[in-house]
Design goal:
The complex is a heterodimer of chains A (about 160) and B (about 160). With about 160 residues, chain A is an alpha+beta fold. Chain A contains 5 helices and 5 strands, in the order H-E-H-H-H-H-E-E-E-E. The chains are: A alpha+beta (about 160), B alpha+beta (about 160). The interface between A and B is large, with 34 and 41 residues.
């Protein structure tokens, strides 16, 4: 059984977050992952490919989404944290990333403006493998670019 | 140009060229900053032990996923397109601690691996389906999933 407060969170949408993609951002992701693919690093090389220039690695967006300025970790101003705090009231204080599924439609390039729109699509209580109960939450995020085209859809689940 | 893989070259059951990775505490901090995931579970050992009960800081699932993404994009090359990837984080991985500024302690080395499970053509696209997974030094699978890729065709 989940509380009415939690049921009411299903379908809740986060305030869209607008994010301008810089070359430095996408290179930080490639660097931190140890990915030397010249599509992310070498302008001259990338210009000679079908992309015609540098692109971002898949999944460079961040989880759950890039946060607005001045966001600290435990700020409930974020859709995920708002949900996590409500789930904590039901006795589930911890949260861990359970899985992610993305679909990629278009490349992301430096200079793109991406709008992240997130929605809580599921909160369920389940029996864990070791007998105890747990909550599973799922947030879906759609990223659209400055042309209104969908570039990526992400579905991310957490175990609480 | 890098070497390009074509749809015709791929057969069901074949292995995807594997990719070897090491995670250190230093790299987790880099990943936290680059990705924007500031969960202290990945850099604050006391928080990980006392609150999260994970026994120590753990490698971000998102970093393990990015390694698998790199394996796939390296494989399909500039003309290929990663269409979809699903990853389930099945077990925790522990980064190597830094022993000195220039070197980590001994610990896990991870292998990104994959196998082709299907090939198809749809709406003019040449599609490959795969199982993908990450193995730790003991050969245990700690992340597993599936991916769909679009490859160029010769014909």
């Amino acid at each position: 059984m989940i509380s009415d407060e939690l049921k009411n969170l299903i379908g809740r949408k986060g305030k869209p977050i607008v994010y301008e993609v810089s070359r430095a951002d996408l290179r930080k992701i490639a660097d931190a992952a140890g990915d030397r693919n010249p599509l992310y690093w070498d302008d001259e090389y990338a210009a000679g490919t079908r992309y015609g220039g540098i692109i971002a690695p898949p999944d460079f967006f961040g989880w759950p989404v890039k946060w607005p300025p001045d966001q600290t970790f435990m700020n409930s101003n974020d859709l995920f944290m708002e949900m996590a705090i409500e789930i904590a009231k039901a006795g589930y204080y911890r949260a861990i990333n359970a899985g992610m599924e993305s679909e990629y439609f278009l490349p992301v390039r430096p200079g793109d403006t991406i709008i992240f729109s997130s929605e809580i699509v599921a909160i369920e209580e389940k029996e864990g493998k070791k007998g105890g109960k747990m909550m599973i939450s799922t947030i879906e995020t759609t990223m659209t670019n400055q042309n209104g085209d969908t570039v990526t859809k992400l579905r991310q689940s957490s175990i609480h | 140009m890098k070497k390009q893989t074509y749809w015709e070259d791929i057969s069901v059951g074949q292995d995807i060229p594997s990719l070897t990775k090491v995670a250190t505490t230093l790299m987790l901090v880099k990943w936290a900053g680059a990705y924007g995931d500031y969960n202290p579970l990945h850099y604050d050992n006391d928080f990980a032990v006392n609150f999260m009960k994970t026994g120590g800081i753990i490698v971000h699932g998102t970093l393990k996923r990015q390694w698998l993404i790199q394996m796939l994009t390296d494989w399909v090359g500039d003309e290929g397109w990663l269409k979809r990837i699903q990853t389930s984080f099945k077990a925790m991985d522990y980064p190597r601690r830094m022993k000195t500024l220039v070197g980590p302690e001994d610990g896990d080395t991870w292998q990104c691996k994959g196998k082709v499970t299907g090939k198809s053509e749809k709406d003019g696209q040449h599609i490959v389906e795969c199982d993908i997974w990450l193995e730790n030094s003991k050969g245990e699978i700690t992340t597993a999933g599936t991916a769909t890729l679009i490859l160029p065709a010769r014909k």
